Amino acid sequence: MLKQDELKRSAMRAVVALLTIPEAEKSPLMSEFQSQISSNQELAAIFDSIQRDSTSANMESMDTS
């Protein structure tokens, strides 16, 4: 089961990366995919976690102090 969990996390990391592409959120296919992720409690939790990690990593890399 651990391997399956890691595959889900990898897929969610790919989705988060795709969403950094300008205009990606306007794609009907991406919108439908995000809707499917949101409707699945487990995938939504993984997606949110990865998105938070990605956002905080981007904020840290922007720190120029």
Automatic annotation (TrEMBL):
Gene3D superfamilies: Leucine-rich Repeat Variant (1.25.10.10). It comes from the Eukaryota. One of its GO terms (biological process) is SCF complex assembly. Keywords: Repeat, Ubl conjugation pathway. InterPro entries: ARM-like, CAND1/CAND2. PANTHER family: TIP120. This is Uncharacterized protein. It comes from Oryzias sinensis.
